[in-house]
Amino acid sequence: MPTDTANYNNASRDVSINILKETPIITWSNPVDITYPTALSSTQLNASASVPGVLTYTPPATAVLNAGDCQTLSVSFAPTDTANYNNTSKDVIIHVLKATPTITWNNPTDITYPTALSATQLNASASVPGSFTYTPTSSTVLDAGNGQTLTADFVRLTRVTTTMLRRT
Amino acid sequence: MIINVLKATPTITWSNPADITYPTALSGAQLNATASVPGVLTFTPPATTVLNAGNAQTLSVNFVPTDTTNYSNTSKDVSIMS
To answer: Is the ipTM of this structure higher than 0.90?
Structure first.
């Protein structure tokens, strides 16, 4: 409406404006290292979004990652208000440390010279499949003496990792 | 792990000798012990000793192995009638 209504008529006109969808902000930091075979859980999969919606993780909770550095965790976010917000996603990195198998081996009972070492003394066991190499080896005859050291080296072979452990 | 390996005790083989008649001196016929591993056998009383007549007299042998790392000293008694 003009101020000078004596000389001007009222007039009107339409214009258009584009309102773009906003991209929500996902907050998610690299999780602390975990040790195989720790399953993924909400401790690692703890992303949050700036608006309501659904977070979907890849790999999902309960997944057990193999040991290895710099493995990617992803989250996809689908907002509830799809009219005003875009879908989005974010990646973080996690390091999965190798597990250390547990070796069970007790001091053997005394033997008398010239008893050869055998499975009776060299009887270590491990919490995971693998093989032991003993020093000294089975069938060795030790001289008499107290406090002689027996050593077991354990090797675990898997599809992706080799783990060595020594117990004396 | 730790293991203790104990010294073995050698086996002395020695039977009661046959009776002897005074004044037969003790000799290798009576003092004929053997051990299961190398070492030195020392008899008491020693060879050439003449025992008085009597029943069930004790003869002793003391054994010292050559491999003293792995074997213990040991001894054995037998009886002889003279």
So the answer is: no
